[in-house]
Amino acid sequence: MSSRAGSRERSATTPETDRRSGPLGALCVATGISLVGNQLTALALPWLVLTTLGPPIDAGIVGAAIVLPAVFGALAGGVVIDRFGPRRTSVVADILSGAAVVAVPIAAMTVGLGLALVVVLAFLGALLDAPGQTARQVLLPDLAGIGRVRLERANAIFQAIENGSLLVGPAIAGVIVLAVGPLGALWLDAISFLVSAVLIRLLVPDIRPAADGPADIAAGIRALATDPVLRMLTVVAAIANLVFTPLFIVVLPALATASGESPAALGAMLAVLGAGMVVGALAIGLLAGRVRRRTVLVIGFVGTGAALIVASVAVPLPVLLVALGGAGLASGLINPIAFTVMQERVPAATRGRVFGAVLGGVLVAAPVGMVALGAIADVAGPRTALWISGVAIVAIGGLVAILRASRELDAAQAPQPA
Prior knowledge:
By secondary structure, the protein is mainly alpha-helical.
């Protein structure tokens, strides 16, 4: 035992360890580049709709078209991942997603854009993007093991990068929209998909666990039906997605336009929300193994909802930014814990199908939220939609606190690298 520990300690600073952690680093970099590109589109496409095509409800329809196909893409993508491997799935999905995104500015320069065409192209892009995102999540536990990185810490870093895209992407997109218009952001997103595909193909090993039963969607759904913890996480995350995801695509853009703010102000709103999420995720990485997971999830949900309620009040832009930063900080605590629990409970051979089923179940709620909160923002104003989101997320925290399945979140875990 002591020799193994000593070997681990000596390897902490050796080139061999650097090589081991290289694939995990490449995965994180590729994910960051791709997600920053996605955030450019998440700002530019709704802004394009709001300023040229129609009211907030139309932006909600486009937002639903972005999220709805991700449900089917995640479910079907899980089967593809387990059959062909997560690396190949990630690479192919990135290339095809980039092609779908670049079709928007190409159509604008040729046949012209209408709401129906934007919805179709957004649908195709999201349908192809979902398997790639799921594949990167499936790769993470194995690459963390290769790099001898604690799983909670690897998830915290991964989620910090994902959340950091909300910080960097919107800020860049705000400047791009002012300088060259929203179509420029879409070109950058297409390029980011290509770069991500190249990095994953060249620097990440092709890990394919031995098959475990037929590669079908039903295996993932059965895992959800029989595991109370996975079932609880899926239900809670679906409710959160219903009211939280529309903030980025519908509610905050509508709030910015209704208040007479510029694209740069909207970028600032999304950026502070993303900055808070980065800090929250990194905090979990530092505290890995030292805090109770159930407590962290309750604090994360209640803190997020309370901050959004404050943000819903008619306050000056600086106060609004502080409230959104607080909401981001609390929400950043949630995903590293949730993904770590999922990865611990799911065998590698079925991870693609189970993750696909979980993500599909979570994402199915988001299109409903897009349309519903878009309609509320259109009729009662975006601040009312923001208040409803905050109240609902506080209620989610209460749900986690009382559910019996949440007690298993702090059950004994297998030893992990320090």
